[in-house]
């Protein structure tokens, strides 16, 4: 199996290099045959990487501990679904997996586009496969998952077959951990496609809005995966790490947030180019930044250059990524400067108060957020280099920089869509803003009198009211108008309104999801926690909950030993059943981890942790958090997900646009029959 | 055994990749077709303006936009569309547009050894199918019957 | 090795003055206002003037919840726990250490120190100072705002302002010299007719 893996990697590398060369030649000669060959190389690259992935998964699933990677990250009694996840549990496997996802995106991009964008395709293939060649090389030469274990004996090397592996990192043994890395990777990797199209457009000088229309979905898909992946990670942190929260501004969390923010800016900014033919250079820069940040994120995550809660194996792959990033930046910027003349804006800004400038401010804020987060993330490295001093930049920094930016962003989420394209007069503004502002003021007063004193939470909730009112007003007004124009009933009108322009109304739903996320974030301000050593019969009062310890039990499964506390919960005199927090000691890795017991509800979560044994009393240490509104974070994430899916549905407008794809091609073929 | 399968897969794929280059060359080396031509670009930009106009109308009816804004913007958009229309007409009527098409046609003739078989070319939409077909892969129109 | 990094006096290692998020928010607001003022076009000033019925309540609301937080020991302990890193190797703040407290001796010791200081009635800043004396400056979750470390706090603000200036310059450059579009009468009527016709065909 190990030979199979290595051979397939070499073959993939060969196809990748060939594809890059053939793509460039095909593009330069405008040769259909060479381009077709390059396109086929993308598929061949995908299939060979697939063979390598299958080889590694086979080794994992058959407990082949002769393979070093399997011995280091798996063990016999690991349940099958965790064994599958062993593929991305370690450095080497992760890189292979990353490459595989890249090859899937590349293959799909070729299959979907090769008949529609034939001039762009050779260069798209070259860029995608160029990235693929880099990752395959790192996987093969630097972090190869296929070496086997050998024992140095007097007679030379003898193959070593350990009877058991080291096991999977226990904190990864949680259900959302099985899907969190793949989803997040799908996000990171996917931005290569819009980047490749942008580069192809630059090279071929086809700098209208074609590349943007083609890559709209190709940018939305990774954006969605990245967002969902981040929230799955937050969910995992909340359920597994046992500190009662879900976001700690860890470098690896930031690494995922950065391309997401830049991608958000890109998805908004392209609309100005589509609608008004402006900001052509800026959009290219944004897609470059997004791609750069996703490679940078992979680099941060994989190189161990910054210390992180995601303590992956540290290795020497950092330097390769740094070189690759340098090449990407140099190549992209050179190309951009060579093509600046072709990127003239088609229109001018009519007014300062307009949707266009709304988008510009949205871009400004998103990039300010990118900058603040990026700076905080890399500052420890810079400080080490400049002053040779170890500093940490943690939550206090981000709370002071990112939170105000977040609130400003939330405000624009509601206000932006209310501005009309080109020019919005004061009268128009008043029509649209009166209701949301009035509601927000009312909510602000109500919250203040209800005793909300935390500024961030108060502002979040006030702005959330404002944005929700803005968005719902858009839906309501739109549907009412359709009712009048088309004579439909309200639900019909609402449906047709949405389906006619899925992108706009899908976007509005995403904005509603963001509102819910902020409602969830605001809940952090109202967190209550308590901690007490407990044994059978002890009571613990937290806010309006009373917990009674019903006993502590110990036991084991094939995979781990556990200590479990059983606590009955009473709230406002009503029995709510029992919660059973656990502490698990994994046999293979000898690491222990808390297993949180949770009673979630949309109003508040009861979050109970068994934190081990108290050293003074010998009783079990029970930690209880009451976390209001956390559930809305997950609900909000789901709404964002649904909104994104809706925005990807082909709308009527788009079908009309697709109808005029190649009128001149027709003219050539029809008038001048060859 | 698995190793043999992997090697066989790699070899098969190599043939698959090289096939377009090795296949008998009946048509000559064809030129990659143009995706967006100047005329198409003008037309598309007009479409965008129409879309904007439609949206504007709708938002006006929805009461989101004051009457004077609506009037100015609507005039603005129409002027923009008229400008694009003028540019488009000019490109079509003057030699500029024709010259572009002629050069494109000449480039294709130069590459091609013979006329493309009607099995490839759709008479309806002009799409050049990658394989000989009975029906156009793009618009579904019937192609000239096979000889 | 750690001793050379250890500050000589307590005041040296005092973290940045703790200030409510309000401070930054109002700062961000003045930045926005300043940016808007930069535009200096009559339109935007008139607009701001007319928009005061929006701006005023928003500003009032920003200032509304200025209420001092009472110093309760649990709150102080929690606040300290958010501002220092647990040095057990988990790379999270003390409050966020994923290890069960009973099994993480570093975490336990840090908590003990904080509890002891609290019992002595020390303020939050003094407790942070004690933690720095014991564990070195890297225990702080964010570096104090002085020396080279000041850049970590200042640069994002500069970056944001620079970005705003760029946006404002862009807006000014992109702006049309006049607001008045060519009146439709001056356009070629046949062109307009062609446009109307094409639009009918497309829009249906």
Could you give a quick summary of the protein structure above?
Chain B has 147 residues and is mostly helical. Chain B contains four helices and no strands.
Blueprint (SSEs and pairs):
The complex is a heterotrimer of chains A (674), B (147) and C (204).
Chain A: H1 2-29, H2 32-61, H3 68-73, H4 80-85, H5 91-113, H6 121-142, E1 150-153, E2 156-159, H7 175-190, H8 192-204, H9 210-241, H10 251-276, H11 280-303, H12 318-338, H13 355-387, H14 395-415, H15 426-449, H16 455-486, H17 490-500, H18 502-523, E3 528-534, E4 539-542, E5 545-556, E6 560-571, E7 574-579, E8 582-586, E9 592-595, E10 597-599, E11 604-613, E12 620-628, H19 631-648, H20 652-658, H21 663-671
Chain B: H1 2-22, H2 38-61, H3 67-93, H4 95-111
Chain C: H1 21-39, H2 42-50, H3 52-63, H4 73-83, H5 105-119, H6 124-135, H7 150-174, H8 189-203
Helix pairs in contact in C: 1-7, 4-5, 5-6
Care to describe what's here?
The complex is a heterotrimer of chains A (674), B (147) and C (204). With 674 residues, chain A is of the alpha+beta class. In chain A, 63% of the residues lie in helices and 12% in strands. Chain A folds into four domains: 1-150 and 161-173, no CATH class; 176-185 and 214-423, no CATH class; 424-525 and 632-657; 527-631. In chain A, strands 4, 5, 6, 7, 8 and 9 form a six-stranded antiparallel beta sheet that branches. The two termini of chain A are 54 Å apart. Mean pLDDT of chain A is 87; it is low at 661-665 and 667-674. Chain B is mostly helical. Chain B has a domain at 32-111. In chain B, 61% of the residues lie in helices and 0% in strands. Chain B has helices spanning 2-22, 38-61, 67-93, 95-111. In chain B, α2 runs antiparallel to α3 (67-93) and α3 (67-93) crosses α4. The model of chain B has no long low-confidence stretch (mean pLDDT 74). In chain C, α4 packs across α5 (105-119). Chain C is built from eight helices and no strands. Chain C has one domain (3-168). Chain C is mostly helical and 204 residues long. Chain C is 58% helix and 0% strand. The chains are: A alpha+beta (674), B mainly alpha (147), C mainly alpha (204). At the A-C interface, α13, α14, α15, α16 and β9 of A face α1, α2, α3, α4 and α7 of C.
Structural class of chain A: alpha+beta
Report mean pLDDT of chain C, rounded to a whole number.
Answer: 67
Gap between N and C termini of chain A: 54 Å
Largest sheet of chain A: 6 strands, antiparallel
Count of beta strands of chain C = 0
Whole-number mean pLDDT of chain A: 87
Distance between the termini of chain C: 79 Å
Give me the Rg of chain C, rounded: 28 Å
- Structural class of the secondary structure composition of chain C? mainly alpha
Strand percentage of chain A lies at 5-15%
Number of helices of chain C: 8
For the CA atoms, what is the radius of gyration of chain A? Answer: 27 Å
Percent helix of chain C: 55-70%
What is the element string of chain C, with H for helices and E for strands? Answer: HHHHHHHH
Beta fraction of the residues of chain C?
under 5%
Question: What number of domains of chain C?
Answer: 1
Number of domains of chain A: 4
Give the number of helices of chain A. Answer: 21
Helix content of chain A: 55-70%
Give the overall silhouette of chain A: globular
Shape of chain C: elongated
